[in-house]
Design a protein that fits this description.
By secondary structure, the protein is an alpha/beta fold. The longest helix is centred in the C-terminal third of the chain and has 20 residues. It has 13 helices and 11 strands. It folds into 2 domains: 159 residues, D-Maltodextrin-Binding Protein, domain 2, CATH 3.40.190; 91 residues, D-Maltodextrin-Binding Protein, domain 2 (3-Layer(aba) Sandwich). The strands form 3 sheets. Strands 7-6-8-5-9 form a 5-stranded mixed β-sheet. A 4-stranded antiparallel β-sheet has the order 3-10-4-11. Helix content is 47%, strand content 22%.
């Protein structure tokens, strides 16, 4: 194959920085091209074939599992509080029936998780999609908003909203399990045609992640510079994040996908398959 044509996605939030550190510092081969974007955009670029391998929302993998394979040992997950996936509202969660809840356009997993929680608690809000990055404007437009990624870390949501519900923590209290927000996936057709190339890219990603955890102090400084928030907050954030995909996280994904299927959020039962 013409290796110059391999395009790989890269999440533009700081949550994926440990995985990409090595690639950003010398490990990137000339034939592998990086495409940085928010998770929802990467989801669609992978399915359209614009990129061949990418981190994507775990729920998006579930929705398209027949076309994709997961890469082992890579995820963005938490085991309790996560800080960067929050529901902000001036109402108690159980009082949101009939109220307007705004989703960001940027994620599928967090939106699916929140819909599942609402469904389970018989809460029936009115959903809308919009820009949740302007924390002052959001409060005047809707009754609640799901905020993800860097925007959740940067803005003082507590100043505008009475409640700031961390969905990683909420899921953990419900299930006792970790939550997997994002996974790395490859197009199944590409993996079948070019297995050696996919193996090489997977090895590079694992090397890159290893380098990231060896240089976490630098990643924390870079995160502080990018977001303009205190270094202790960035460090606390990385302390809560995991980029592995162990048996417990795979089990948690299965529980999440089954819950989505039982509530008709997913049309097909998911058989989790790895490259």
């Amino acid at each position: 194959m013409n290796e110059s044509s391999v395009y790989m996605g890269k999440i533009s939030y700081i949550n994926a920085s440990p995985v990409y550190y090595g690639l950003d510092h010398g490990l990137l081969p000339p034939w592998l091209k990086m495409v940085a974007d928010v998770p929802a955009a990467l989801n669609h670029k992978l399915i359209s074939g614009e990129i061949k391998i990418s981190p994507i929302s775990a729920a998006f993998y579930a929705m398209n599992h027949r076309q994709l394979l997961l890469l082992p040992q890579l995820s963005i997950s938490c085991n309790g509080k996560v800080l960067s996936v929050v529901l902000v509202t001036n109402y108690a969660m159980d009082d949101l029936t009939g109220k307007t809840v705004m989703f960001s356009k940027e994620s599928a997993s967090a939106a699916a998780l929140l819909k599942m929680i609402f469904h389970q608690r018989n809460i029936e809000p009115v959903y809308t999609v919009g820009d949740v990055n302007d924390f002052k404007k959001v409060g005047s437009q809707v009754d609640a908003a799901l905020v993800i990624g860097d925007a959740a870390l940067v803005h003082p949501w507590d100043q505008e909203f009475k409640y700031r519900i961390d969905l990683g923590q909420f899921w953990h209290e419900m299930t006792g399990l970790p939550f997997v927000f994002a996974v790395w996936a490859v197009r199944r057709s590409f993996a079948q045609k070019f297995p050696d190339t996919v193996t090489r890219i997977h090895q590079i990603l694992l090397e890159s992640k290893k380098s990231g955890y060896e240089n976490l102090d630098q990643i924390i400084k870079d995160g502080q510079n990018k977001l303009g928030i205190p270094q202790e907050r960035v460090k606390h954030y990385y302390d809560l994040l995991y980029c592995d995909l162990d048996d417990q996280k795979i089990k948690a994904m299965g529980v999440f996908f089954d819950s989505l299927y039982e509530r008709n959020i997913l049309k097909l039962k998911v058989d989790i398959q790895f490259f």
